[in-house]
Amino acid sequence: MDESEDPAGIAATETERLNRKTHSFSFGILFFLFGIAAGFFLAFSGFDLFEVYFTHVLAGFVVLVTLIVLTGLGLYVFRGKLMASLFGIAESRLDMFAEPLSRVTQKAIDRDPEGATHAARELVQLTLARYSWITARRWIIASLTGLIASLAALAGTALLFRQNELIASQNVRIEEQTALLTQQVELAEAARNAAIAVEITRIAALLGTVMDKVATQSDGADAPTGDVAADKIPVIDPAKDLDQSLIMRIVASSQASKPYRYLDAGDDFGSVQSAIKDAMRRRREELPTSFARMARLGNWQEAPEARVLVARSYSPERGQLLDTLVRSGIRSFEFLNFYGLDLSHAALRDFFFGPFSFQNGKMAYADLARGHFTEVDFQGANLENAILREARIESARFSSLEPEFAVPPVVTTSQPLTSRLTGLDLTDAFLQFVWFENARLTAANFDRATLMGTDFSGADLSGSTFRGTVLGHAEFNGAILASVDFDGAYVFAVDFLDRVDEKAYPGSFKRSRFVQEASSIEAVMETYSTFSQLEAGDFKELLGSDSVWRIKRVEPFEQ
User: Fold this and answer.
1) Which is more confidently placed, 222 or 421?
2) What 3-state DSSP class applies to 462?
3) Maximum Cα–Cα distance for the chain, whole Å?
4) Does the first or last residue of the chain, that is N or C, have fewer Cβ atoms within 10 Å of its Cβ?
5) Quick one: pLDDT at residue 224?
6) Structure pTM?
7) Helix (H) or strand (E) holding 490
8) What is the tens place of the pLDDT at every residue in 5-34?
9) pLDDT band at 220 (very low <50, low <70, confident <90, very high)
């Protein structure tokens, strides 16, 4: 019989083909499930976990591949001995099936049971031996293929996660780049304003000449010695002592100095508290409790870790111009304001103002933090959203400007000129004998300030806050107090809330929103603006009583 027509060979070939399909399908399902499991693992654990254990995973794959390869080599080299010991035959080929199969048939025809059994046993041994070898070989090849495919799949998944991570990192870098571009634009504006700083220096030189002239005139015919006593610094009257060209030069410089954002050195940079904080840093570990208490009382703030731009635009050049004008002896700015002097967004911290008259002037959004204001007049001025944090203000007027008190050439009608103080920030400030009569103080901030003689009569305080404020003496006659927050404020009259309810603009103050609770002078002295300016015994002398109550808000502003 031709081998191609051998039934046994055809049957064995068909069986082998079916087994191959079955194994391929089974291993495909196995790899698919393995891929799903690996995907879930990475999805829930994240790339970071996979990245941490990547070396272990790779080492496990290498060990498995090595073991399978060595197992395959061992089976191939010792297959004869293994098959002989297991099945009694050293080799099993397809052409070897024909003889025992024919003998089984022949013995069955000859009615030789023993011979047929012996031939059938030999056929079974050949079948089992061949099946075992083919199965082992396929398992080795499939295992190697599966491991390599799994490693490739995991590598692809890892690369995908890595790609996503790089994209996220790239987005962060883009945001950083955008911030840097913003900084570049703002700093470019700062470079442009550097030319204006040179112009301000020239103005200072011209003002110095005017000072010499005024000093000479005040001393009669005597020539100036150049050693002018501090109490004899000449006072310049812009209307009389400045020529028109210098006035216009000053005004033009103020208008050309546009505000911009610059790198932030920290909110409290340059202050006394900043110096104390920096000095105490070396004892921070040894005195943690004391350091924490000083930080709380001094309202210490940490400088930003990275050099970032300030929160809003300022003009240091306008602050420099204001500094130059005040130091040159100009005390009345009404004449310059009439010609358009613009000091909005000026940045000038830790400066002394006084005596100082700035009626109907422009100083909105200015940063005058920690300034000392004595005998200053801001009646009718625009200080919207200006910052006077930690300032000391004494004998100052922020009231609306009545016509009879206007300093020429300020022009007023029969109606008062309203002081625009919306958003004025007086956090941690100390105010003594300060008037805000009829001013527009919408959403002003008096948090943690100390008010010792302050008049808000007729002022619009809608939305303003007095949280933690020490209200030593404050008048609210006719003041609009809609949504004003007194939560945490210290008062020195048991009927303070009742008085406010009685004197405030009718219907603007909701008395039921607050209650008073007994407190102490020691609690008051925990306020930075108080203990930095007063002693505990001063309240008895100034107010006639040292009994203290603290206001607590018990109802929300909006139901």
Assistant:
1) 421
2) coil
3) 159
4) C
5) 47
6) 0.69
7) strand 490-491
8) 455 555 555 555 555 555 555 655 665 566
9) low
Tokens 């922020």, located at residue: 398
More confident residue, 196 or 14: 196
At 348, list the tokens: 């000038």
How far, in whole angstroms, is CA 519 from its chain's centroid? 36
Q: Residue 210 is which amino acid?
A: V
The DSSP output letter for 403 is G
**Own/partner pairs, 421-426, CB within 8 angstroms, 24+ separation:** 421/383, 421/384, 421/386, 422/384, 422/385, 423/384, 423/385, 423/386, 424/383, 424/384, 424/385, 424/386, 424/388, 425/385, 425/386, 425/387, 425/388, 425/389, 426/388, 426/389, 426/391, 426/393
Whole-angstrom Cα distance, residue 217 to residue 215? 5
479 touches 458 (CB < 8 A): yes
- Cα separation of 127 and 122, whole Å? 9
β-partners of residue 451 are: 431, 471
- Bridge partners, residue 550, by sequence: 490, 517
Cβ 399 vs Cβ 376: under 8 Å:
no
The span from the CA of 494 to the CA of 499, in Å, is 10
Mean pLDDT of 438-460: 96
Q: What angle do CA 134, 136, 137 make, to 5 degrees?
A: 65
Q: Which two tokens stand for residue 288?
A: 């943690």
Helices (H), 53-112: 54-77, 79-87, 98-109
Dist. CA 364–CA 423, nearest whole Å: 10
Q: What is the pLDDT of residue 144?
A: 73
Structure tokens of 442?
Answer: 């919408």
3-class DSSP state of 328: coil
Residue 463 CA: distances (Å) to CA of 442, 470, 508, 549, 553: 6, 18, 11, 23, 15
3-state secondary structure 355-388: CEECCCCECCCCECCCCEEEEEECCCCECCCCEC
Model pLDDT for residues 102-153, shown as the tens digit of each residue: 777 777 777 777 777 777 777 777 777 777 777 777 777 777 777 777 666 6
